[in-house]
Amino acid sequence: MTKxxxxxxxxxxxxxxxxxxxxxxxxNNLNLEVNxxxxxxxxxxxxAGKSTFINILAGTxxxxxxxxxxxxxxxxxxxxxVRASIxxxxxxVNIDPFFNPRDILELQAGMYGxxxxxRITDTILKLVSLESQAKSYxxxxxxxxxxxxxxxxxxxxxPPIIILDEPTAGVDVELRKNLWNNVKxxxxxxxxxxxxxxxLNEAEEMCDRIGILxxxxxxxxxxxxxxxxxxxxxxxxxxxxxxxxxxxxSLKSLKILSNEISELTxxxxxxxxxxxxxxxxxxxxxxxxxxISTDDGDLEDVxxxxxxx
Length: 309
Fold this sequence. Notes:
Layout lengths: L4 E13 L5 E13 L3 E5 L6 H9 L6 E6 L2 E2 L4 H6 L1 E4 L11 H11 L9 H7 L15 H13 L5 E5 L7 H16 L3 E5 L3 H7 L2 E6 L2 E7 H6 L3 E8 L14 E5 L3 E7 L5 H9 L5 E7 L3 H9 L2
């Protein structure tokens, strides 16, 4: 069954004019589609255009040109419906310290015009594991609880799409794992998730598909699996009984990373060389290999290759 597009972006441009002679293309002819029910990662270095993109969807930045359609609503024709279809979890913790989580969610629901009988405050508090802190001052909450409260605020109007903008920036490893468990739980319930992150291992673990922005241009858009397939460099470590007589380019594309008495580490391009050729090269010197470990690289390799100048 074909899933519908919940977000459709066509030729989206945002130009900031610094003065009459100089302008900056924050987004340059961006084309993007996000499918219902997926976790979509938007990656890119600082200044790539991620925040500009999110601010356009949120209605706090006006696009220069292009088409934006969210949940079937055109941003130019139905801006209010577009905003109602999205819940945005910002980077900054912007919570009133003198309100408790229940009051904050009730106030947020009121701002969206949701009638008291239609509010799902208790459900949301339970979803983000804050029911025990429902009546505590938010200033007394831990950093992790405050982050979860931001997610809760974004859910009060039951949006079909949640955007998380660098949600785990500056938080510890345990808190990050807890937050991602929350996000996965939301996604299982049918919420489409769009996230920006600097943590590439996070994107690799969480996202079905990934778009990579660099200087306002979309330089990659594919499934996480396909992006990882694009990594050509393989690193192999051999445990050996004595030092191997081998040099850079002894075999095509081969690079020696270290060559010790008991261990040889090399890298090579998968398209140019097969690991069996290296094994044969070592065996031909009558050297016994006791162990082999390999590293196929990760998303960071793709990211750096696509975003470097």
